[in-house]
Design a protein that fits this description.
Strand order of the largest sheet: 1-2
Order of helices and strands: HHHEHHHHEHEEHHHHHH
CATH architecture of the largest domain: Up-down Bundle
Largest sheet: 2 strands, antiparallel
Helix content: over 70%
Structural class: mainly alpha
Amino acid sequence: MSIVNDIRTAFSRRDNALNQLLLINVLVFVAFILLRTVMFLLTGGKNGHLPVLEWLAVPSVPGTLLTRPWTMLTYSFIHFDFFHILFNLLNLYWFGALVREYLGDRRLVSLYVLGALCGAALYVLALNLVPALRGGPAILYGASASVTAIIVAAATLMPDYTFSIILLGPVRIKYIAAVVVILSIAGINGGNAGGMLAHLGGALLGFVFIKQLQAGRDLGRPVQAVGDFVGNLVSARPRTSTTHGRATEASQAKRGPLNHPEQDEIDLILDKISRSGYESLSKDEKQKLFKASQK
């Protein structure tokens, strides 16, 4: 089938992280729809999917979490409500494209993964340490913590970048991020306190990630190292290729994650903007312009 081939092609490319994240979320969503339908037809019950969900969502009970550590990441790809996944994926697409354009695929994935981990950690800590939030066992699922991390990271990276929003017109993304954070804070005393706290954990990670990156420290290196290890196992690459890749990354790390391009290059880029507009710039030119703005 052409759809299967399209999915296979999307995952075979190494520079396609944003589409891969979007696809994983959609595929898991569809898989759970099929699972719920099959279980309903076989048993007549509407909760036949719950045993699988409990093995993929983050449990609020620490003892259970210790036996299911993978849930700290797998929960961030699970949705059941159509509008939940729609809004998460739209925000992931818009803000993820911005982060990917300036920081690359690897740091986009790092933000998604670390946002999920921080969101889950704050969720479990709060539900066990804050008296007002203590209750019976609960679970956490959804990409909101990861997406919020990417939204806040984009706003921290380029606070004055504008999106055109229907009925509102151009809006700076720092205000969009501020609204997302305020709504999450306001929702803590609502019916989904744990989910709102996970959003805030992701938001904190997104802010700290960019500030540390601008200071020369890439918090995503452990995630990237694990990704390289898994990727090399899957593709069965020769060891020499892996060594060469690490040497290249090491040389890039010595130059720093946000090296500043020469002023002559920036002048040429600014001239191009004055002639043809910002959208005429290539991805590399936009990255150089952003790096120069960090001076």
